[in-house]
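Q: Sequence in, structure out?
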Amino acid sequence: MSKLLFTISFSLLSISAFSQWNLVWSDEFDSAALDMSKWSHETGGNGWGNNESQFYTTNGTNLQVSNDELKIIALQETIGNNPYTSAKIVTKGKYQIQYGKIEARIKIPMGQGIWPAFWMLGSNIDQVSWPFCGEIDIVEHINSELMTHGTAHWDVNGYAYYGNSVANSDPTQFHIYSIEWDDAEIKWFFNGNQYHTMNIDNGINGTNEFQEPFYLILNLAVGGNWPGYPDATTTFPQVLVVDYVRVYKDQSDLGLDAKELKSLSIYPNPGADELRIEGAKINDLVSFKTMDGKTCLSQKISHQNSFNVSPLDSGAYFVELKNEKGAISRAKFVKK
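A: Exactly. Output:
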């Protein structure tokens, strides 16, 4: 399972050179329910601007977390004037990102009128409305196409969009969909292979929207202007399966320069209460920082090579060791 690979990857990174990307936020969907500190439900059946047919609910029949996976389930059942139900979750007001790598590992359902998406909206949507807030569709799929789509939407003296599609021989299997986004461009990837780029440098072509923070969205729509509507060939339930959602920052954005740092060897990694630090000396300063660079624990080593990490919450951290001469070494550490 991907969760095991996730843990192992951190152990390897602690003894190897930094990659460009450093994890700053994720949901591995490894709890018994949706983590409401990260997500909120959006509900209703007003067509969502696209004449969609579903009513989004908070029902356990429409959204489930089990076996380290999120499942969004579309059902053929009526609420009001809506002949289908489904779910939509957002990080609005709880998490936003400006620039970085955003990815998810997803199984996509297929059928006439079925429209799943992993996407983003500008966090200022309530102030400026759509499309002035900007929209980044990391992946969308409609009907039974053997392709997936990545698109940006914005306003430039009128609505504008720019997108591309990539061949996908079996969307119903797990694939990784991602973007890499900075102040100059947005790049779309399918299983790590780039297939689309959009230039946003200096707000070219009115793209200033994409120089602002965005929040994340997962949903499964039924019907709408783009895919059309279910017909006799469409079966229910339809299920969107998400293994994980992860957000990374470029190490340069976090003030990290691997070329100027010595490698730091720490073990056990992952660890629970006590961390051993290879080469550390008494009075060396050890700091633990969250993945967005905030220091959460810092003290001098009081006895050889050992540091108490029991106060740390479970999660991923940077460990920095600074000796009396000011030299700094850094590694990554996962607290169990």
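The radius of gyration is 22 Å.
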